[in-house]
């Protein structure tokens, strides 16, 4: 008799597809900055500001979406988020002003993608997995990188051959196409199917629900109020803010324009960024595997330190073609891109228990605030100085500082179980 796979794996697979479906928009800013600048004459700093609004809302929405998933369920929140992404991307074909760009790229898509941000990953893995939680977190996190891998070369090709509007419509169509699958197969709790979480036993405590009588907003703000009184929250949030500065905000938004400044065709630069996405998939899955086995604090310190070193040498690697040294950077940086996520999710659960997914939503909000600051600041640096060199050097130094913040985290001593307390009392008696 063939043994059926645990339903948790089906839920994880559908979540992965949803994350890939929403990732298309996050690949578009890098290939659309110059086309929008050329057509509308908007400064890069203005276009980057629209990206910054998106990044801020992408982060700030995450904790409220995680709390809303506790109330309404995962699949309804995710389906609504995909429709927002489709609307925000598709309606850009009608825009005529930079204000419309901010409302569509920034607000609508920011809210949609934020509802499927890494707080969504933390919620799914926290509810459905006990064993392999770190590994599954890594795989789902890699969904965003896989989306970039799938969409970025295609979008660059569409922008070059058919214009940026075709690329925006493709993103909208893909987001809509994922909605039926989410409504059909994504489930909220193992108990909905009469099973336990993967790897759970009868002795494991059930997942605590949200406090009675509290809405999603009050739940999210209440968790923030409690977490903000702790030292680990600020160390995690500070490090993750720098993580956002040195990934989405800087490299994700400005790598293609920076390479183009040195004579590299945009399609070639987009292919390099997609190649980073390939290595990111491997690096993030490997990071999830390591998170199940190695102290997450050590992992974060290593990831941030190595990232900082790679960014400090990047300005010397740009040229009209991809030299071997640039390919080494792509390999090295790609393995490290979002490898920070699995250990950060694990530490949020270690320090904050069942509130970990909502706390991680706030930590992720700091990530996106950092990304937004870097996206705008790098655009201004380019407008004022004529190149991006200063932005790369500052980002490298900040990443090394984030390594120090991670190593300041102290291991949390687990609370003794009731059985252990009883045995200790008996021994003392």
UniProtKB/TrEMBL annotation:
Gene Ontology annotations for the cellular component aspect, listed alphabetically: plasma membrane
Membrane topology, record value: Multi-pass membrane protein
Domain of life of the source: Bacteria
Pfam families assigned: MFS_1 (PF07690)
MF term (GO), any: transmembrane transporter activity
Gene3D superfamilies in the record: MFS general substrate transporter like domains (1.20.1250.20)
Transmembrane spans: 40-60, 72-95, 101-122, 134-158, 164-186, 233-256, 268-291, 298-318, 324-347, 359-378, 390-409
Keywords assigned: Membrane, Transmembrane, Transmembrane helix
Record localization: Cell membrane
InterPro entries: MFS, MFS_dom, MFS_trans_sf, Proton-linked_MCT
Domain Major facilitator superfamily (MFS) profile positions: 10-414
UniProt xrefs under PANTHER family: EG:103B4.3 PROTEIN-RELATED, MONOCARBOXYLATE TRANSPORTER
Protein name in UniProt: MFS transporter
Organism for this UniProt entry: Planosporangium mesophilum
